[in-house]
Amino acid sequence: MTYVCPVCGYDKMHEAPYYSNGDASFDLCLCCGFQFGVDDDVEIENGKFLTRTESHVLYRDNWIKDGAKVFSSDAFDTNLDRGESLGRELLEKQLHTIHIQLEKRMES
User: Rounded distance, CA 53 to CA 7, Å?
Assistant: First the structure.
């Protein structure tokens, strides 16, 4: 069984990002590098934190602005190495999995 990353839509995660009780798995997404239970713990001011969804959006937006670079060369069976950009077609496909539409102005 595989799971989908709620940040980038990568659909080959080996562990669920969050368990049914709400606890984070502390797993890393091999595509975007988001670590569940770490990167979703964003304090915005004294004791006030972003929600998980807000953290996902913030991380996703920054990851895309940085070129949607692959976190691990183990993420894909193709020749995508760590640090290479996904490319617009693959990025759009992944984001579609989590019901996110890539902005038209984004360059691939």
Answer: 9
Six token digits for residue 83? 């640090």
What confidence tens digit (pLDDT) does each residue in 14-63 have? 999 999 999 999 999 999 999 999 999 999 888 899 999 999 999 999 99
Q: Model's pTM, two decimal places?
A: 0.90
**DSSP-assigned beta bridge partners for residue 24:** 18
Domain ranges across the chain: 1-108
What is the per-residue DSSP string for the chain? --B--TTT----BSS-SB-TTS-B--PBPTTT--BTTTTT--EEETTEE--HHHHHHHHHHHHHHTT-B-S-TTS-SSSPPTT-B--HHHHHHHHHHTT-PPPTT---
The per-residue pLDDT for range 79-107, each reduced to its tens digit, is 888 999 999 999 999 999 999 998 754 44
